[in-house]
Amino acid sequence: MRNLILTRLALAIVTLFFVSVIVFAAVRFLPGDIAQQLLGQSATPENVAALRQQLGLDVPGYISYFDWLGGLFRGDLGQSIATGRSVSELISGRLANTLFLAGFTAIIAIPLGYIFGFLGALLKGTSFDRATNVIALSIISLPEYFVAYVLVVLLAVKTGWFPALSRVSPSMGFLDYAERLVLPSMSLGFVIIAYIMRVTKSSILNVLGEDYVQMAQMKGNSRFRVMFVHALPNALAPIINVTAINLAYLVVGVVIVETVFVYPGLGQLLVDSVAKRDMPVVQAVCLVFAGIYILVNATADILIVLSNPRLRHAK
Amino acid sequence: MEDGTKLLKPSRRKFIQSTSLATASLMLPIGFGAGGVRAATPQRGGTLRVAMSPGSTSDTLDPMSYVDSPQFTAGLTLANCLVEIDKDKKPIPELAESWESSDAFKRWKFTLRSGVTFHNGKPLTSADVVYSLKRHIAPDSTSAAAGLLADVDDVVADGDLGVIITHKTGTPDLPIIMGDFHLVIIPEGFTDFANFVGTGPYKLIRFEPGVVLETERNENYWKADRAFVDKFDLVFINDSTAAANALMTGEVQAVSKLGSQLAKRLQSRDGINLITSEGGSCNSLDMNCQSKLFGDNNVRTAMKLAIDRQKMVEFIGSGFGTVGNDNPIPSNDPFFNADIKQREYDPEQAKFHLKKAGIDSLDLTLQVSDAAYSGAVDSASLLQESAKVAGLNIRIKKEPEDGYWSNVWLKSDFMAAYFGTRPTPDMMFSIFYKSGAPWNESHWENKTFDRLLVEARLTDDFTKRKEIYDEMQQLAHDDSGIAIFMMPSIIDAYASEVQGAEADGVRTMMGARVAERVWLQG
Prior knowledge:
Strand content of chain B: 15-25%
CATH class of the largest domain in chain A: Mainly Alpha
Number of helices of chain B: 17
Largest sheet of chain A: none
Number of strands of chain B: 21
CATH topology of one domain in chain B: Dipeptide-binding Protein, domain 3
Number of domains of chain A: 2
Distance between the termini of chain B: 38 Å
Largest sheet of chain B: 7 strands, mixed
Radius of gyration of chain B: 23 Å
Order of helices and strands of chain A: HHHHHHHHHHHHHH
CATH class of one domain in chain B: Alpha Beta
Oligomer: heterodimer
Largest interface: A-B, 56 and 48 residues
Shape of chain B: globular
Strand content of chain A: under 5%
CATH architecture of the largest domain in chain A: Orthogonal Bundle
Distance between the termini of chain A: 12 Å
Number of strands of chain A: 0
CATH architecture of one domain in chain B: Roll
Strand order of the largest sheet of chain B: 8-9-10-1-11-19-12
């Protein structure tokens, strides 16, 4: 078991290293240069040349990569080229916002997804099952910004129940903060509930068709017991997987919802920094995203192994 | 975003029907809404929140880094310039009480107002002005205003309240230049822009780049009849639908530069006033005069005649805008030449000019991206249709928005572009039309034009200057490669409790001075 975790961690670090190389190279290959982008349309060539020199853009790529990597090991993410502020300071507040929105949404949406999935499996073929299926499919096929706009029109513009913008500030109390997150988490939550529900339901139904489950039923076990004690452990792997993917998505894939609700999260920071070719920030945010993605997936893998005796005691 | 905005988009048929109405109502030179808004005496108090874009997490409050209206607004909320430009583009005293020139406009003396203090209590002196201005003209300066000040030789203090500015070639427009948004005055030696200190109407509480600028009224503000609200927040909202939603739900009381389609939807809504300002920017198709293709003015003229300008305004601007006449000087400028005949869509005449160039039909490629102006790609399709009739076969090459200004602009032989109107004809012409100017968008070279440009600078008499500028506008209209087909309106939306808002010939949000000019009706 310890070996498994250690291997996973080692692999994660190697993956992160490759990601860092790819991100670094990709940023270098973006069209246009940062000095031009920073100064905008109104820059003179002399302006641009002066800024290029100030920023050290004339240094070859591999040298600045190793400089950056060295800084990383010292815990120094460098300074934003565009603002001169320290990258870790820029990222920390935004990361907290992103994690808060993700956590807030996950706590509500993921259990709901499970519950609807189980109910769907238990009540297979009933009108409840069909209705949730139709709704889930429609939500999955709608782009999230559309869902977001519909929610804004209905719950903010027409009724005025919730604020249309998620402007938050550090001085806000928890309840204020949560109120401002309702609409964005709903826009994100719907899709997540729908995905998790469908995967939960179908993987349980798959297992319910197996011989050993029928055996358990014939032994006279209650439906509830058959489902949770006999079927669920074997249906867990896909459910853990879809949960992990959705958790990762909540952190790295929400930039559109951030834009619609003007929520200051990491996604917007990344988009702005790419537009300004602010390499240190782009690299750092990509690494944070990659790190979270890898961490969540590694955790899911480990949990899947733990949940399955055949894998747990593999020879 | 296509599906997301559908909610707020009318159907195509309805859209066409209503555009003709909107165009009709825009025959009046000043936009609707401007009339009814000027109301009684200003009131003190309240919090005003204004939504603007673009805002970015990489913004700073350093005046050298300002690039667009939100930053300009932030600057003029927290600080002042030497000179204020009023809504009719006239220079009026701000931190400088008076100014005079000598030596053929080469030497200018500005006298500062006494008794003005910065937010930190430090009194304003000429040393602050020298420091603030010289940052932009230092040889290694990265200021966006470096180009504007390229001909400024030196800035020196003359006693506590006198500032002498010397100009290499001399210009009567120096006071207007001093009203530029980048030239706000900060204390001598100041570099801590995260904790900005100025002399402006509002003091900084909190600045979170790309999110919000929060300010509170400067109780010691030296302008007695300005700055009415207690708190002023600038909220950066890049998604225009989100900004409109915020206005409708009362999260903000004003939205800058509303898109024309959203404006049409909000136009009839109670509690919202639209204020349209004309002539703020030019949408153009730029032809490289040095290229083989457009070297002959006949071809350029043919292209100008092949644009259906009326349709462009209807479709690209939803009727919010005026038809361009290949003249960068807007009709509300005092130097506007009203005698130039409006160029209309005329495929026959275009063919005639092509023939004169010895060509029957021409295949060419237009490089375009919505980064150039909103609706640019659609405008290319419109042009494709209207120009085909004239024998001009246009292939549209859609370029990525990201990097358009560094990779396509000024480098392409035929491209879509826009530029914001500058406050004086001299600036417009020296930046975009003078031979060899770095941003001469069509690489146009005209000796007569260049000579007139210098001549106008040495003339203080308005009538004489106007004559010269008239001739230059005619030259630009006839010969240059910048086909300005449309000047889109700037549409600002205000909640009805906001009073005192007016159209402004310079910039959106009352020339970026919205914070100190409007008040909230209790």
